[in-house]
Design a protein that fits this description.
Structural class: alpha/beta
CATH class of the largest domain: Alpha Beta
Number of helices: 24
Number of domains: 3
Number of strands: 22
Helix content: 25-40%
Strand order of the largest sheet: 4-3-5-6-8-7
Radius of gyration: 25 Å
CATH architecture of the largest domain: 3-Layer(aba) Sandwich
Length: about 600
Amino acid sequence: MRDRHLNAASQILPFAVPMASPTTLISSTATQRVSGAYALIDSLVRHGVKHIFGYPGGAILPIYDALYQAEEKGEVKHFLVRHEQAAAHAADGYARATGKVGVCFATSGPGATNLVTGIATAQMDSIPMVVVTGQVSRGAIGTDAFQETDIHGITLPIVKHSYVVRDANQMAQIVAEAFHIASTGRPGPVLIDVPKDVGTDEIDYIPVEPGDVKILGYHPEIEIDGQQIEAAIALLHEAEKPLLYVGGGAIASAAHEEIQTLAEAFSAPMTNTLMGKGAVDEHHPLAVGMLGMHGTAYANFAVSQCDLLVAIGARFDDRVTGKLDQFAARAKVIHIDIDPAEVGKNRAPEVAVVGDVKKVLVRLLDDLGKQAEPDGDRTKSWLDEIKGWRTDFPLTVPTYTDEISPQSVIVEITKQAPYAYCTTDVGQHQMWAAQFLKNGPRQWISSAGLGTMGFGLPAAMGVKVAMPEHPVICISGDASFQMNLQELATLDQYGIAVKTVILNNGWQGMVRQWQEAFFGERYSSSNMEKGMPNFPLLAQAFGIKGMTISDPSELEGAIAEMLAFDGPVLLDVRVKRDENCYPMIPAGKSNADMIGLPDKPRPAR
């Protein structure tokens, strides 16, 4: 089990008994008589929370009553979602776009269990969240009371840490700990489960300010090993075919400038994972795009041919590596990651540097500056080789006279809204978006590790709430969109001007593609045509502008109209039904074994 699961793995923190918390409380001595619910809301406000996504219910009503008073004062704003899963995804999108901790609320029982998919999504992608759930009163816990579930136990494998608040006097301390844990080290979601009577109990409230909490045994700051830095520099100097492999940890630590500086210093090409999009400027001549199952051919060939792979905040996920024992088989590996549990988990590196990615790279570049300048000509033939692959195996955008290609939709969005924040759902549309969008840091918002359908729309709500002055576009598929379409009501209620583009092919597109390629074209339960709603009419039923197009000549104008409209829009784009997403690495194959490429010579295996 990974060490970021603080509950079960390390026993660093109290196991759901905050009264025994081994923490040092540093706060004002001034007290006031308030409810536990007030202490919770006030503590959230003190930690900079401006927006909360949630849905009320019986067990969490004391907290919502305190929230009502805070909203009346203008201290915080709550957004009522239509399903608790959407609350978690909205908080997740908010956190991804800002780097701050996202917050969501749900009541006990089904309200809490409806959050589970969103919590798991955040945990897989290392997103900082604080999740507050209501719980039945303390005396009823364990009696199978109405709407009782052990949400603490249910979520143990998918949180960084969790609490059941047994004493309202501990509320401020627990909130401070939760924010500290969620946002430091490798980020992740933290659960706070609050019994109803804890919310109503009156206490002498002593606030705990941000930064005024220390947790004994929890040391997210790791001292960087200077010897490992020197060993990494030595390998970089020796390499003739280096490749930087950049993951989500680079986004979390805001290491964008340092990565580019390192790449330029050694003339090393840069590839990124799905989570790492935005960490690398994909317009940069050294950028080779995303690698992995649907990555660019030249990125996948590069990782197969490189002699040094520098993994920066990446975890060697199976969708990136393909057949693991053939991944970067010619290369030595430098692995830089904040989580020591990730180092050597899937691939043993020659050099491992544990620490915050940005701090490690700053140290590496500083030490590099004290040594001889790198030989920029060393990689010239390597870059020429990659340039040849770019020419022979480019990403292509097919055009049709009477049908819209899905790739052309993404390209048109990129052309008209190059600086938009883009969320996606999961499937073919996600991969096309990853291939053709050129996003800036934190402008790519997608469920990578868990691959959660229904993520895109609520995540876009969270992004737009966080970034009201920026365009926010949700790119979805007709199947994914139907997972959380009820959130159109939330868009309308609060005037959240998310633009949603559905690439509608009437299928669960990626499922259909796999069934075509590997299951003898037996399309079992993947056709979505029968029962598909009229999406524009559906949008109008929710009070939102709905549009639909099916002719290529309509595409440019429709995107422009959507972007110009002052409010939320749903654009249903009827795309070519049987279009497949290539390149593609079949399961169990190496990165070099892509299908869907031109019939041209490939690099030697």
